[in-house]
Design goal:
The complex is a heterodimer. Chain A is 33% helix and 21% strand. Chain A is an alpha/beta fold. Chain A has one domain: Alpha-Beta Barrel (TIM Barrel), CATH 3.20.20. In chain A, strands 1, 2, 3, 4, 5, 19, 20, 21 and 22 form a nine-stranded mixed β-sheet that branches. In chain A, β12 and β13 form a beta hairpin. In chain A, α10 (285-294) runs parallel beside α12 (354-369) and α13 runs antiparallel to α17 (475-483). Chain B has helices spanning 37-44, 65-78, 92-105, 118-127, 134-140, 151-154, 158-161, 205-216, 232-244, 254-257, 263-276, 293-304, 326-331, 345-348, 351-359, 414-430; strands spanning 2-7, 19-24, 27-33, 53-56, 59-62, 82-86, 108-111, 130-132, 143-147, 179-184, 196-199, 226-227, 230-231, 247-252, 281-286, 310-311, 318-319, 337-341, 362-366, 378-381, 391-394, 400-403. Chain B has three domains: 2-42, no CATH class; 49-116 and 292-430, 3-Layer(aba) Sandwich (Rossmann fold), CATH 3.40.50.740; 118-286, Dimethylsulfoxide Reductase, domain 2. β16 of chain A pairs parallel with β8 (130-132) of chain B, so a sheet runs across the interface.
Chain lengths: 562, 434
């Protein structure tokens, strides 16, 4: 019986309402327990203690991440670190290799990361990489945004069959929920076009709005731990904030299956733009946060900018093409038959650029203007708005008005005219930081019921001990503490000590099994098999991800709601 | 007799997965449908390496796996500059152990891409690759270009399953409603099917790409009457076809990666695709050869950060093709031992490289004897992936598919042999043997 006692820590455990209390944490056999008898004692000596971090949206594994690595050896070289007794060789900055991804997240105190975009046809690839990411528990969201089957059901209004289809796809991909990226737009991109929210998707005669609504309804037919997870149409376009708000409104009247949001919208920074072109581009973080403040059915994550070079990648093929048209840098695209697509291009976020400055401001403005931190998760949409190792920078900004003011001075002066940033005084507390970096994400993903994001009895023994006192106000020291933990403990095992990785246990892969009526499934499968026979380039029987790809499974059943 | 459906072929980058075979008495007795003639031959089985062997006084002498593993590990552990090469005709599970072995040894990890589509990788690193899955081509493409490739003979099912001859959602009429352009230095079985055949002079691909780009950008006036052996009239016709496509797809092969301007050819081919985007949708895809050469590039990239020519001597990955590719290392006589798996440098490398390879200790892992066996010092027969072993592979469009196991093998899988070598190397190093 392996036991650990963390004593003298100041604990921030928002899901259990613990706001910086001196409290012991007891762990036995990987789980938090009431008490221990003969533990290994870790003296936190008054440092900040939080549950292991939970990232709700990050691109860490799969086809497009690896295409990014492959076509950017210049990024690979930035992060090389030699192997150690426990660590394998590391490479990469914005697109680290799989090993570095695990080590670096763990060093920041994170123990769970959601891979946010898994093309179903290439799901095996995502899982192969997840297996090679050490330490982190993980899951992946299959892309169900441009599937022909789904569009046909949305058009015909067969919501039960649509539910049967998404259930089959989530099971076949060993996925976690419903990810929607630029619905309809990527299908249109098959012909070099794009769709806005109310445009008609070529050939399929449905609108993205109808797709989103249909998928939200279908998702809530099961006890799904997570809501639909949406990357709304027209990402990155000036003036898109109206579309974003309209997207929120689509699902306002749908009842969630569980006590959670009906829609999580991701990397909201990219969707909170005003203006009509890049010349009069401005922040609409106020309009977006007003909506979120007034409504309770939608949650957001930030997609906050980290200045510097990064690698953008998304299933939103047409968006990456637009970005490459702007920069003229290299660009890779990969359309996926009957399902989705992807694009990748490098990007430099510069504080000298007025547009980048406003984008940079918006990400933080959203966190500061949304009043309830339970509606916000900290992300950089890694690596799109910047690599995940920039999280400590964002944390220090949110906690320090002084640091924000100093930083604003280094940005383009447009920040004083077309952003809200300089006028905001709010400073995040450590408790609120604990919400947006773990508790909120765990709850929005439904993983708090499976031991993630908190330290109550029965929770996973995933703990981060940051080398700082709760009274620390120096932004630089805060940033440093959140970059490298004093200890990261994963399932009761010390994996990081004094900022160094000391153990690399394998993580678990969480997947959801929506349970659908056999009759419905059988009816759906007739149509699906026809798609395979006529249009897919692989057979029906070779499509589903085999068990061998998920050697450390954690299954969550999602019963049909009668 | 058992009929097995959805069998996945482990021959070329097409990775056809709709093959039907009959199995009886632990033998594939019949390939009923789905496979091309070469794929069929692989599934049916042919001459094998019979036993592990160690070369003694110039002759390969049969031995046990234990003895061969010990010998291989001794060679690798004693090497100051080992090369681990091949990896393209095996599964990703084996490739992963290969990377681990390279890390342990501080070896150079290279794969067949370096003598194949390595130039394509360099071009992609320069400009990127606007591409798609093969099913996209099947369903949408009405203009297909094969450039420096002869699928009718080298990827025999490619046109039927994925491109010119296939039928899909918007291409129900099949080839009747499609145009085929073939660019090659000689007439081939593929070019005979073409609507337009551009027979160019050897090594002039770069010029043709440039001329077509100029036309697509509206500068046909700068194009001379003849470019690289092709008439301006034919170029204009090809450009018109590209412009008029609803969805165009270019596939390119060795004929363009290893001639003339090499990787610059591919950069130009990709730039031509981008030029086509000013008119319509167009994609471009390399015709990968080995069934899992795309897979070793994937594995090597997610584990080391780089797709091929990776040096792990320093404890971290260092990538420098041209310096660290297998042929270059061998020509410089730099490596002092090599492990060759699932490939045949003896048949495919330049003479100078083979000369050095023949001088140094070589360990070979392969189901089949080939010219490399002639000078290998330790030989391991392995199970045939896709017939006797399962595992993950990546098709030429990077779609992962799981090979099926059809029959039992008396030989161990590549992954197992590599793991045992790795364990033995670690044991030697622990004893301070290096």
């Amino acid at each position: 019986m392996a036991e650990v006692l963390i004593k003298n820590g100041v604990v921030y455990d928002p899901l259990n309402g613990v706001k910086g209390e001196k409290k012991d944490i007891c762990i036995r056999d990987g789980k938090v327990v009431e008490s221990v008898k003969n533990p290994k004692v870790i003296d936190a000596e008054g440092r900040v203690v939080m549950p292991g971090g939970v990232d709700i949206h990050s691109h860490i594994a799969g086809g497009k991440v690896n295409s990014g690595r492959l076509f950017r050896p210049e990024d690979g070289r930035k992060g090389v670190e030699a192997k150690t007794k426990v660590c394998r060789p590391q490479s990469g900055y914005s697109i680290p290799n799989t090993f570095a991804t695990g080590y670096r997240y763990a060093r920041m105190g994170y123990t769970f990361v959601m891979e946010a975009a898994m093309p179903p046809l290439a799901a095996r690839h995502t899982h192969e990489e997840l297996v090679d990411i050490p330490i982190l528990d993980n899951a992946a969201l299959p892309l169900l945004d441009n599937n022909w089957m789904k569009m046909e059901y949305v058009k015909s209004g067969d919501m039960d069959l649509l539910a049967a289809y998404i259930a089959w796809m989530i099971k076949a991909t060993k996925g976690f929920g419903v990810k929607i990226v630029n619905p309809g737009g990527t299908e249109a991109w098959g012909w070099g076009k794009n769709c806005s929210l109310n445009d008609t998707v070529p050939t399929f005669d449905v609108t993205p709005a109808e797709i989103i609504k249909g998928l939200a309804e279908a998702n809530e037919k099961f006890d799904m731990p997570h809501s639909i997870h949406v990357h709304t149409n027209m990402l990155g376009h000036p003036g898109n904030f109206e579309i974003t708000k309209e997207t929120y409104d689509l699902v306002k009247d749908i009842k969630p299956a569980k006590d959670r949001q009906v829609m999580h919208t991701t990397h909201t920074q990219f969707h909170s733009y005003g203006g009509t072109n890049w010349g009069d581009f401005e922040s609409k973080a106020d309009a977006i946060s007003d909506y979120i403040n007034q409504n309770d059915h939608a949650t957001i994550d930030l997609g906050s900018i980290i200045l510097g070079d990064t690698t953008t990648m998304t299933a939103d093929g047409p968006m990456e093409y637009s970005l490459y048209q702007i920069t003229g840098r290299k660009w890779t695209n990969h359309d996926v038959e009957l399902e989705t697509g992807s694009g990748i291009t490098p990007f430099l976020y510069s504080g000298k650029s007025p547009v980048n400055t406003i984008q940079w401001a918006i990400g933080q403005e959203l966190a500061l203007l949304v009043k309830d931190p339970w509606k916000v998760a900290l992300t950089t949409d890694h690596p799109n708005a910047g690599p995940f190792i920039g999280y400590p920078i964002i944390i220090s900004m949110l906690m320090s008005k002084k640091r924000r003011d100093e930083s604003a001075e280094d940005m383009h002066k447009v920040i004083y005219d077309r952003a809200i940033y300089p006028s905001i005084d709010r400073e995040y507390s450590l408790y609120e930081i604990a919400i947006i970096t773990r508790a909120m994400a765990a709850k929005a993903l439904g993983l708090h019921e499976h031991g993630k994001g908190h330290l109550g009895v029965g929770a996973d023994g995933d703990v981060a001990i940051y080398d700082m006192s709760p009274e620390e106000t120096d932004a630089g020291k805060i940033q440093k503490a959140f970059l490298n933990t004093k200890y990261t403990i994963k399932g009761g095992e010390v994996v990081v000590k004094d900022g160094e990785v000391v153990a690399t246990p394998a993580g678990k892969t969480y997947f959801v099994t929506p349970e659908c009526d056999d009759k419905l499934t059988d009816e759906m499968v007739v149509k699906l098999k026809d798609k395979f026979d006529r249009y897919y380039s692989v057979t029906y029987n070779n499509y589903a991800v085999q068990d061998a790809y998920v050697p450390n499974p954690y299954e969550i059943k999602a019963p049909w709601r009668s | 007799m058992v009929e097995v459906t959805d069998v996945v072929c482990s021959l070329c980058g097409c990775v056809c997965d709709d093959i039907v075979v009959e199995v009886e008495d632990n033998k594939v007795t019949k390939v009923k449908r789905g496979a091309c003639s070469v794929g069929k031959s692989k599934l049916m089985g042919h001459n094998r390496i019979k036993s592990p062997a160690i070369r003694v006084n110039g002759e390969l002498k049969d031995c046990s796996y234990d003895e061969a593993i010990k010998k291989a590990a001794e060679i690798l552990a004693a090497s100051r500059r080992p090369l681990l090469y091949g990896w393209s005709s095996t599964v990703c599970e084996a490739d992963k152990v290969g990377v681990e072995l390279a890390e342990e040894l501080g070896a150079v990890m290279d794969n067949t891409a370096s003598v194949c589509h390595g130039p394509s990788v360099l071009a992609i690193q320069d400009v990127g690759l606007p591409s798609c899955t093969l099913g996209e081509v099947k369903n949408r493409a009405d203009v297909i270009i094969y450039w420096g490739a002869n699928p009718a003979e080298a990827h025999a099912n490619h046109m039927k399953r994925y491109s010119y001859v296939s039928k899909g959602f918007w291409t129900e009429e099949g080839k009747k409603a499609k145009k085929l352009v073939v660019v090659d230095v000689r007439a081939t079985k593929t070019s005979k099917m073409a609507d337009v055949f551009l027979q160019l002079d050897q090594g002039k691909d770069y010029l043709i790409f440039s001329a077509l780009r100029a036309i697509l950008y509206g500068h046909e006036d700068v194009v001379p009457d003849e470019v690289g052996g092709v008439s301006k009239k034919d170029l204009l016709e090809t450009a018109e076809m590209m412009k008029g496509a609803k969805f165009g797809a270019t596939f390119f092969g060795m004929g363009v990666t290893h001639t003339g301007a090499r990787h610059n050819n591919i950069v130009n081919a990709i730039q031509l695709t981008r030029a086509a985007h000013t008119h319509t949708k167009f994609t471009i895809t390399p015709m990968r050869g080995h069934y899992n050469v795309a897979g070793i590039n994937q594995v090597c990239t997610w584990e080391t950060g780089f797709p091929f020519a990776v040096d792990l001597t320093r404890g971290y990955a260092w990538y420098n093709p041209g310096e660290l590719s297998a042929t270059d290392l061998l020509i410089r006589q730099e490596c002092d031992a090599a492990l060759i798996i699932a490939s045949d440098p003896g048949a495919h490398f330049p003479g100078e490289s083979i000369k050095h390879l023949a001088k140094i200790p070589v360990i070979q892992i392969d189901p089949f004897p080939n010219p490399t066996t002639e000078f290998a010092d330790v030989v391991f027969p392995a199970a045939v992936s896709g017939v006797e072993a399962e595992g993950n592979v990546y098709r030429m469009d990077n779609i992962p598919i799981r090979l099926r196991k059809l029959i039992d093998s008396e030989y161990p899988e590549d992954e197992e042999i590599l793991k045992r070598i790795l364990d033995e190397v670690r044991a030697i190093k622990e004893k301070g043997g290096k």
